[in-house]
């Protein structure tokens, strides 16, 4: 087998526009995501509200457009009113989802303040586990109505004269999961979501709503769940959600890096199901996808079993990510970009400490995990129009998938900036992959940067003592030859960002 790959992109062969919200993230009241993550009042870097400025800078470095809040499994037992009003009067509650105590020091208003400081918007979730339409209409009145009603005037009395104008709302979380507080069948959830969606849009018709899809592609009820839920909610919702995590439990890296092929299939199946319901309803509206939980998650499973219940902000789900995890995160980002016509929102779960690109020490440092880098590169350089990638690549067979291409890649054209960016992963663990890029329709171009994330140790991770063990460098060798072809060598097991300036 000759190890070389090629990719042709044409500026007229487009997949779709990138909605910047595809680079969203997630903060749940779970572990140290809030307390000890974004919020730590006693920290030397805490601002006047208790938000950590060092964490804020790392968040801003990702240019995150939207953050889902407050859960997650947590939201299905959460009374949002517990998190408003004077902090000293707020109740401590048992959180049954994660078996901790929630002190409610951060709630809706504080989170909205944090969003403003972090230059991001909120994707707010409502509780459809223990609650329903009644609480949902109240929270939207509190958040989005100017004044003159009980809930909007209460917000004003809490010091927030202007409404928050939260425009994106999730109708519950993972309601198909037996682990969920108040889990429902597809028909039960579909009815509840439909009636909740109706009253929410009656309060504020400008909002967009996300219905719960399956908790993962391995659920026995997938994709029948999506079909049933959308039959109930089609007229009232704008998105259906997808959640998927991967782990390398059997220590088979070649198979682990192939998992994004399952993500491709997952996305395509949900699109097909949504389109089937649209056809059945004789509808004009396309239901788009919100991939609002995705990541690698498995490193912390054993440690989490040992946590004492009913503590406040214990270190839960604290995966320490290594180099191979960053490669799969890169492949997952490429997966979503390849369906940018329909995947319009996505949330890397989560943002700080909890299966996160950013880690902190209580009272101490904050640093970037390996997965921070592909996420940052995609968010910074992956804005524009995604082009159809015509790829030829050598392939391999893995345990779960056959014909896995060593090259996983996509191209994004930013017309405004006259740039094309290629994101590419070489899945080969031992050999470099020569790549020929053909951008013939764009005319002359030059390589402005070839960023590479690579490591001789697939298990190398960034820790508090070695925060830069795995980090990108500008040492890539992409270049344009005399015929206008672009040649690059992608190092073994590497993530690559090739940035091209058009003439």
TrEMBL record:
UniProt pathway: Glycan metabolism
Family matches, as SMART domains: Alpha-L-AF_C
Keyword Lipid metabolism assigned: no
EC number: 3.2.1.55
Matches recorded under InterPro entries: Alpha-L-AF_C, ASD1_cat, GH, Glyco_hydro_b
Gene Ontology process terms (BP): L-arabinose metabolic process; polysaccharide catabolic process
Family membership noted in the UniProt record: Belongs to the glycosyl hydrolase 51 family.
Protein name: non-reducing end alpha-L-arabinofuranosidase
Organism: Paenibacillus silvestris
């Amino acid at each position: 087998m000759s190890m070389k790959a090629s990719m042709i992109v044409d500026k007229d062969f487009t997949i779709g526009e990138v909605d910047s919200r595809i680079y969203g993230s997630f903060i749940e009241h779970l572990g140290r995501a809030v307390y000890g993550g974004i919020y730590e009042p006693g920290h030397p870097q805490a601002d006047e509200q208790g938000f950590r400025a060092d964490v804020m800078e790392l968040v801003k470095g990702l240019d995150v457009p939207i953050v889902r809040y407050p859960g997650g499994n947590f939201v299905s037992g959460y009374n949002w009113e517990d998190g408003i009003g004077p902090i000293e009067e707020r109740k401590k509650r048992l959180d049954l989802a994660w078996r901790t105590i929630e002190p409610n020091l951060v709630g809706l208003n504080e989170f909205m303040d944090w969003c403003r400081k972090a230059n991001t918007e909120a994707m707010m979730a409502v509780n459809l586990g223990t609650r329903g339409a009644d609480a949902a209409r109240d929270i939207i009145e509190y958040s989005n109505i100017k004044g003159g009603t009980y809930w909007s005037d209460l917000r004003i009395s809490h010091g927030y004269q202007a409404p928050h104008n939260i425009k994106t709302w999730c109708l519950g979380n993972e309601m198909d999961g037996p682990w969920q507080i108040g889990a429902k069948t597809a028909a039960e959830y579909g009815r509840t979501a439909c009636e909740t969606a109706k009253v929410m849009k009656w309060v504020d018709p400008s909002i967009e709503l996300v219905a719960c899809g399956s908790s993962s592609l391995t659920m026995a009820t997938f994709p029948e769940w999506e079909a049933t839920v959308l039959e109930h909610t089609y007229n009232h919702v704008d998105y259906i959600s997808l959640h998927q995590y991967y782990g390398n439990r059997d220590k088979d890296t070649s198979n682990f890096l192939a998992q994004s092929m399952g993500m491709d299939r997952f996305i395509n199946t949900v699109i097909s199901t949504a389109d089937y319901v649209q056809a059945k309803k004789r509808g004009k509206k396309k239901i788009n996808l919100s991939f609002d939980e995705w990541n690698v998650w498995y490193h912390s499973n054993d440690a989490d079993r040992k946590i004492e219940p009913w503590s406040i902000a214990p270190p839960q789900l604290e995966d320490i990510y290594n180099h191979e995890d960053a490669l799969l995160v890169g492949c997952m980002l490429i997966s979503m970009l390849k369906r940018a016509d329909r995947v319009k929102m996505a949330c890397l779960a989560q943002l700080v400490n909890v299966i996160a690109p950013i880690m902190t020490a209580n009272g101490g440092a904050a640093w970037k995990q390996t997965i921070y880098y592909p996420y940052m590169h995609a968010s910074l350089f992956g804005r524009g129009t995604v082009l159809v990638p015509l790829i030829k690549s050598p392939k391999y067979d893995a345990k779960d998938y056959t014909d896995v291409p060593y090259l996983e890649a996509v191209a994004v054209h930013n017309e405004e900036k006259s740039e094309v960016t290629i994101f590419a992963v070489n899945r080969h663990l031992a050999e470099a992959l020569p790549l020929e890029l053909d951008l013939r329709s764009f005319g002359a171009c030059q390589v402005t940067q070839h960023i590479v994330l690579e490591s001789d140790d697939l298990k190398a991770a960034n820790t508090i003592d070695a925060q830069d063990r795995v980090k990108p460098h500008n040492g890539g060798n992409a270049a344009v030859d005399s015929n206008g072809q672009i040649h690059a060598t992608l190092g073994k097991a590497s993530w690559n960002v090739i940035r091209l300036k058009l003439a």
